[in-house]
Design goal:
There is one protein chain. The chain is α/β, with parallel strands linked by helices. It is built from four helices and six strands. It has helices at residues 14-31, 58-65, 74-91, 134-142, and strands at residues 2-4, 35-42, 45-54, 99-103, 120-124, 145-148.
Length: 155
């Protein structure tokens, strides 16, 4: 799971709504005893929060503390996630992997999006009167399913 927590996600309550959705996903993962890897993309570089651990109540504390700021090292996060997923697949070939990317897609530019080697879902949290729509394009390049957060949460 990659969570874009760059400064642009503060607009129009985007990150706040994403946190509500993530809380629900964490609860579901806990009940299913699923393992999670969680990477935050904000500031200058992506940062691992959890790597392959079972979902736990500790994720709720991290989520409560999550704030937005800085740049969008999303491409670096995708590269890091791709390397981690490939190594994990070699080590645990029977494990089913799935990538969840939560972003507003507000990158200045990108090229060479890494292949991730597993099914993915991009949840677009872009809000406001002017939407650039880059998250939909990013999902297409990642060959991931696309959903806007408004389809998943009730406002």
């Amino acid at each position: 799971m990659i969570v874009d927590a760059s400064a642009s996600t503060r607009r129009h309550q985007a990150l706040s709504d994403a946190k509500g959705l993530l809380a629900q996903l964490f609860d579901d993962a806990y009940r299913q005893r699923a393992r999670l890897a969680l990477l935050t993309a904000s500031g200058h570089a992506p940062r691992w929060q959890v790597q392959g651990l079972k979902a736990s109540a500790g994720l709720r504390h991290w989520l409560d503390e999550l704030g937005a700021g800085g740049g969008t090292p999303l491409l670096a996060a995708l590269g890091e996630a791709g390397r981690w997923l490939a190594a994990r697949q070699k080590r645990l070939p029977a494990e089913q992997q799935r990538l969840l990317l939560v972003t507003d897609g507000r990158l200045k530019e990108w090229s060479g999006v890494p292949a991730l080697g597993c099914p993915g879902l991009l949840i677009d949290i872009e809000r406001g009167p002017i939407r650039l729509g880059r998250a939909r394009q990013l999902a297409a390049e990642l060959q991931a399913d696309y959903r806007h957060i408004d389809e998943l949460v009730s406002g």
